[in-house]
Amino acid sequence: MVCDCVAPECSAELGGTDVFLKKALEELLKCMLRVWCREGQALTRLGSSTHESDKRVVVRRDAGGEFGIRIHGSRPVVVSAIEPDTPAEGSGLEVGDIIMSVNGESVMDATHSEVVRLAHSDTDVLELEVARTCNVLAPRLTRPGIKEGADEMPLCSGYLWRKSASSSNTDKWVRRWFALRRDNCLYYYKTDADSQPVGAVMLIKYDVEQTPELRLHSFAIKKQGAPTLRLAADTEEAATRWTTVIKEAIERNDQVDTWLEASLRMREMAACAIQRPDCFGYLSKQQEHARKTSSPTGWSRRYCVLKDAALYFYDDANAEKAFGVACLHGFRVHGSAPTSGGRKHAFELQSPDPTQRSYIFATESEMDKKR
């Protein structure tokens, strides 16, 4: 557990009145959070139903390793960051969680340094009681500044455990936010506050089966020739709900491929006619023959529009229709491309299926690449 406080020189830039107001507001917020947490603890002791945000999280680290948790503030302390590829990432702990107790000892009135000292007191296991603040202090947004419309509301959404396929630890499960949307595609995000998914599965000709031998309330989404997605819910009720809606989505896709139908329809549209694209602009695309030889030549500049995991290719921004479309469901983005021939600002889109082609693109600037 690591300290994550604001540097003193930052506050020096503020005037005296501003500093006083800032501190007063911070203390008021802390007081409100303490009251909210105490209410949950009181309800628990009285035997009433606890607040849905309260949760117990166990974080186990290797001997001499780090937990991977950054905290901020005091009385109470709040999780400010979770380091990637650490035990905390797969524990279910989230940024914004208020830490109420550490290994059974209440830390609601503890200072920042006292919590850090307690967390490092010769233990490799942290049992944390936390109060979840996501969706409590602020509404969840699908895109920065844009609330989710009724037509974009997912059919089902919530946190599930996903079995890691790439980790050296084959028993590693990570907590991800899943959303089954109306295009019958299952998207998953790092947290419920993220707008960009880290993966997606188009539910066409998949099977769903229970896997109690792997984990309690777990199930698998699988089909021949594709990676298997192994998931687990926190309760039997949640697992039943998810398997039901996923099976229904598979049945709908088997009857009519709605996503493919929409993609073919939009391919006949002008680039400017596609409403609310996820991203658009010019990209340089490496040709297949150039990739095999890692040649610096063999690139073509195309105007591209990304919409619902489909990338449409146009000759230019004024073209009346796309000359091609690439389905990118489940593709992974790599920030570098070894076969780009030294091309600057290149990146690779790698298919989850090794039998399918991957794509290598390059932008004009690093900022455009990150976008």
UniProtKB/TrEMBL annotation:
Organism: Dufourea novaeangliae (Sweat bee)
Positions of the PH domain: 153-251, 276-371
PANTHER family xrefs: AGAP008221-PA, PDZ DOMAIN-CONTAINING PROTEIN
Xref: InterPro entries: PDZ, PDZ_sf, PH-like_dom_sf, PH_domain
Listed Pfam families: PDZ (PF00595), PH (PF00169)
Matches recorded under PROSITE patterns: PDZ, PH_DOMAIN
Ranges of residues in domain PDZ: 56-134
The protein's name in its UniProt record: Gamma-1-syntrophin
Gene3D superfamilies given in the database record: 2.30.42.10, Pleckstrin-homology domain (PH domain)/Phosphotyrosine-binding domain (PTB) (2.30.29.30)
